[in-house]
Amino acid sequence: MNLREAFEVAVRSLRSNRLRSLLTTLGIIIGVAAVILLVALGKGMQKGVDEQFGRLANQITLSKANGTVPGGGTAKDLKDDDVTALQNRSLAPDIQSVTPQTQGSTLLTYQGQQERASVVGTTANYLRITDRSIAVGEFFNRTQERGNAKVAVLGQEAVGFLFGPNAQLADVVGQEVRVAHSTFRIIGVLAQDEQQDNVVIMPIGASRAYLLGGGSDNVDQIVVKATSPDAVGAATAQLTKILDDRHKIKDPKKRDYNVRAQQNLLNRRTEFVNFLTLFTAAVAAISLIVGGIGVANIMLVAVTERTREIGIRKAIGAPRSAIMKQFLTEAVVLSGLGGLAGVAVGIGLATAGGPLLHKVSSEFPQPVLTVPPILISFGVSLLIGLLAGGYPANRAARLRPIEALRFE
Q: Of 163, 196, 224, which marks where a domain is finished?
């Protein structure tokens, strides 16, 4: 019996037991579809993480160490001179921009309505370096920064607290709000982007003059942007050398400042998403194993039901290899058809169900279909058929003709 004949016999056998064949392949169908869908969802989450945080991958944050530094002594403050040194391209060629920030908490007041919010004093390039944008109005410019203008940009959460949840953002621009004991004019409202939203942002000089008492050149945080994500390592080495020299630090373990690269956080987040994807796919693969057990069970039943047929075929000269090929082919065809159906169901759910759920909740990731999971899950379904049919096929091939003919 050649392979074509074995395939035709297998198809006839499966068609004669349609319902049983369908029920047997359900485990394979569900398993393959689940693997494809869950991997697509995992890829969608990973794409979302890359889009949301990837633009911050070349960002490095510097902050003063808390308390005493290792080896004794107190940590030195970060100052404007440190910012100026980091902006020296001859010393730090891989640093694209440097943005100092003062940070704190303050009380906002508007027509008797009060709310505590975070306050950030910074420079005019804040939006570019933090990858934020303006929903309404504008951000302060270099002239306003140098003039310590009493202008402010609010996050939408702060706007909701002060002006009410139904306030029109366009109407907020131009209003005056008290920040601590000083009055600032609102010139813009930040777009919502899952970053700190209960915040008021102003020129760094204004924050020092009207909120911190003036005269201070301390900086709470310095945000450094490398020229590219690949240059983060070089930029980190350059900025640590500059600050070590300025702070007279000989031992890196005794640094009085902290360095945090956003790329490291992004890598850890991506690793977590990959682990979650593999875990869910592994759970889904359990149904493939269950489906394989179902195929093995049905093939054992088929061998038992067709024992006399096997005896007759062996009595008229059918070799052991022909019997084994027949039952192996049936098992592989059965699992292969289940695999194909599972691929169709998985692709259908990913392309139709995913976008539907995304419309229900924007937080739900758009599934991203890729070829490898489809090929691998289908290949595994064929392998399961081969393994599940191996024992029943071998059992059928080992039957002695006289015993098979006597079987009732």
A: 224
**For residues 206 and 251, which has the higher predicted lDDT (pLDDT)?**
206
CA distance 387 to 360: 42
Residue 291 is predicted with a pLDDT of 77
H helices of 193-231, in order, are 204-210
Is 130 inside a domain boundary?
Answer: yes
Confidence of residue 202 (pLDDT cuts 50, 70, 90): very high
Look at residues 97, 92, 144 and name the one whose alpha carbon lies nearest to residue 121: 144
Residue of 169, 165, 154 lying closest to 106 (CA atoms): 154
Q: How many domains does the chain have?
A: 2
Q: Is the pTM of this model over 0.85?
A: no
CA atoms within 13 A on the CB side of 224: 34
Cβ neighbours of residue 243 closer than 8 Å, sequence gap 6 or more: 62, 82, 85, 86, 249, 255, 257
Task: Say if residues 258 and 243 touch (Cβ distance below 8 Å).
Answer: no
78-127 residue pLDDT tens: 888 988 999 988 888 999 888 999 988 889 999 888 889 999 999 998 88
Question: Could you tell me if residue 325 is inside a domain?
Answer: yes
Return the HEC string of 329-362.
Answer: HHHHHHHHHHHHHHHHHHHHHHHHHHHHHHHHCC
Structure confidence at residue 41 as a pLDDT band (50, 70, 90): confident
CA distance 49 to 194: 12
Q: How far apart are the first and last CA of the chain?
A: 26
Same domain, 209 and 277: no
How many angstroms separate the CA atoms of 385 and 295, rounded? 7
- The string of pLDDT tens digits covering residues 143-153 is 999 999 999 99
> What are the CA-CA distances from residue 150 to residues 145, 158, 159, 206, 317 (Å)?
9, 18, 18, 6, 100
**Pair (397, 290) in one structural domain:** yes
